[in-house]
Amino acid sequence: MRKIILSAIGILLIVFSFLFAKKLIANKNKPKPVKEKVVKTVFTDTVKNTTVKIIIPANGSLVAKRRVELYAEVQGVFKPSRVLFKPGQKYRKGQTLIGMDAAEYYASVQSAKSDLYNTLSSIMPDLRLDFPDVYKKWQSYLNSFNINKSTPKLPEMTSDKENYFITGRGIVSSYYNVKNLEQRLYKYNITAPFSGILTEALVTEGSLIRSGQKLGEFIDPSVYEMEVALSKGYASLLKVGEPVTLNNLDDTETYQGRVSRVNGSIDATTQTITAYIDVENEDLKEGMYLEARVDAKEEENAFEIDRNLLLEDHEVFVVRDSILDVIPVKPVHFSDTKVVLKAIPDGTVILKKAVPGAYVGMLVRPFKGETSKTTAK
User: Fold this and answer.
1) Confidence grade of residue 37 (pLDDT, cut at 50, 70, 90)
2) How many angstroms separate the first and last alpha carbons of the chain?
3) Could you give the percent of the chain with pLDDT greater than 90?
């Protein structure tokens, strides 16, 4: 009985071993599963070369184009006036900004005028006897002499004898001494050279003003200019009179300006060239920070794309029969986010948005809902 049981167990083991071996052989010959190819959907654009405007970005602060720093050339006490000398005060052209007490100096000017008048009066008898032909001329000048008005110009001397006589009596030197004193007297009143506004006031009424002291700053708020530094590569592109669009930092307001001046030299340190942009708007204030977009030139037969689509070797991805490929391009201008390219044939289908992990030979499917053409700027 025992032998029968052991024989049955042996037979069963042989059968199980045969079946297990057969299963292993079947699994070995089973074909591997084929992975399904992944086709990525991409955004594409069809190239249509047009004329692209090259726009140079720049920024800077506004400064009044006409500004005057006020300094005293004489010494005196600041006299009170109807208009307070305070920042923000507006003045018309020719209106007095600062008036200083000049009573003492005025008296010295009047004294010099009186001396000149007395000297002229003393030579009149000699002129009548020795130079009767010029007597009337000098008599007419003496009659027009008013000590309370500006000293008139001396009559023109027509002969050497007349010149020697007048000069020898010290009249010419006295005349120019009086004119010098009169010119200095005018400096006790500082008037507005143009209509504008006071932006800085460093003195107050009643204070003693000394010669050479800075008194304040006066500007014309109607025209401002912005100084911008641009790369030397744009030197040949900048032209006086070019229109410029300016925006504030919030990009909520837009102003129109123009290039008024371009510096003739390049900064040796920064290798930049300085341009000046004029802008007029009643909402602008000195010191405002603006961003400018200068229209440098127009590039013909060009196409503009995002900078991140340009590969390191100046190549871009194109789509050919649902497969990615690359073609060489020629960049002609870079901005912060865009690049202008040339040498791309019309009708070429390129990527419109970057594809992570893209490579040559990658299977792609253009997104059907997009517009294949773009409008050139």
Assistant:
1) low
2) 102
3) 55
Confidence (pTM): 0.67
- Which of 330, 323, 376 minimizes the C-alpha distance to 351? 323
pLDDT tens for each residue of 217-266: 999 999 999 999 888 877 777 788 888 889 988 778 899 999 999 998 88
Q: Which fold has domain 56-64+221-298?
A: Elongation Factor Tu (Ef-tu); domain 3 (2.40.30)
More confident call, 30 vs 321:
321
Dihedral (CA of 342, 343, 348, 354) sign: negative
Query: Residue 12: in which H helix or E strand, if any?
Result: helix 2-28
Could you give the CA distance from residue 36 to residue 302 in angstroms, rounded to a whole number? Answer: 40
d(CA 110, CA 118): 12
Mean pLDDT of the residues in the chain: 87
Residue 224 token pair: 């401002």
pLDDT > 70 in the chain, percent: 92
Q: Which CATH number fits domain 67-101+188-219: 2.40.50.100, 3.30.565.10, 1.10.1790.10, 1.10.3720.10?
A: 2.40.50.100
d(CA 125, CA 112): 22
**Predicted local confidence at residue 107, as pLDDT:** 95
Q: What is the DSSP string of 82-114?
A: SS---TT-EE-TT-EEEEB--HHHHHHHHHHHH
Largest CA distance in the chain: 184
Helix and strand totals (H; E) in the chain:
5, 22
Q: For residues 24-43, b (16+ Cβ closer than 10 Å) or e, as one string?
A: eeeeeeeeeeeeeeeeeebe
pLDDT exceeds 90 at position 117? yes
Number of Cβ within 10 Å of residue 197's Cβ equals: 18
Q: How confident is the model at residue 58 (pLDDT cuts 50, 70, 90)?
A: confident
Report DSSP letters for 111-157, one per residue.
Answer: HHHHHHHHHHHHHHHHHHHH-HHHHHHHHHHHHH--TTSPPPPPPPP
DSSP per-residue codes, 192-222: -SSSEEEEEE---TTPEE-TT-EEEEEE-TT
Task: Phi first, then psi: give them for residue 341, nearest 5 degrees.
Answer: -115, 155
